[in-house]
Amino acid sequence: GRKSVRFGDHQFCEQAKSIIVRNTSRQSKPLRVQVMHSSVVAHQCFALKALSWLGQIIQYSDGLKRILCQVGLQKGPEGENSSLVNRLMLNDSKMWKGARNIYHQLLMNSLLMDLKFKKIFAIQFAKNDYIRDDHDREFSITDLSVQMFTVPSL
Fold first, then answer.
1. pLDDT in tens, 103-125
2. Beta bridge partners of 6
3. What mean pLDDT comes out for the span 51-77?
4. What is the pLDDT of residues 34-59, one digit of tens each?
5. Beta bridge partners of 76
6. Strand partners, 154
7. What pTM, to 2 d.p., does this model score?
8. How many angstroms separate the first and last alpha carbons of the chain?
9. Phi, psi dihedrals of residue 150, rounded to the nearest 5°
């Protein structure tokens, strides 16, 4: 998960970080702790709210769902694996559980609900290795493979 544990100036937060890392390092793997500027955290919270809202809206609008699928799967200027969806999947293991859940729900409510886009998504998914050293398998993008590859049309 993710939680803010300290608010204050940079030095104060760095001290808290070192204490948390030191106290949890007795376990097999210390907690991952980041010191972030409050504006970055605010932007991330806003992005999650916007994705959640978009996920609710596309359930009622087929046109918006198709637009979201087309934009999400469109190749970027870098080439083959540069679509927004590919970049999200490649960075899946770097996200916290809450962010993963929201964008996975968005994928399930959009790309996986339309057979044409589901097929394109499944092909892109199969071409890439999205399995990184991921400590939360049940929140991983690889968990979506069941929804993709258990359909007769694929």
1. 888 988 898 888 888 888 888 88
2. none
3. 91
4. 899 999 989 989 999 999 999 999 98
5. 79
6. none
7. 0.70
8. 34
9. -105, 25
Residue 53: half-sphere exposure toward Cβ, Cα within 13 Å: 6
The torsion angles phi and psi of 116, rounded to 5 degrees, stand at -65, -50
Q: Hey, CA dihedral for 85, 89, 94, 99, is it positive or negative? A: positive
pLDDT over 80 at 153, yes or no? no
Closest by CA position to 75, among listed 66, 86, 65: 86
Classify residue 140 as left (phi > 0), alpha (psi -120 to 50) or beta. beta
Both tokens of 1, joined, read 């998960």
User: Is residue 62 helix, strand or coil?
Assistant: helix
**Is residue 55 within 8 Å of residue 105, measured between CB atoms?**
yes
Whether 19 has a pLDDT exceeding 70, the answer reads yes
C-alpha to C-alpha distance for 146 and 5, rounded to whole angstroms: 36
Cα dist from 108 to 64, 69, 78, whole Å: 15, 11, 26
Q: DSSP letter at 82?
A: -
Helices (H), the chain: 10-24, 38-57, 62-73, 84-90, 97-109, 115-127, 145-149
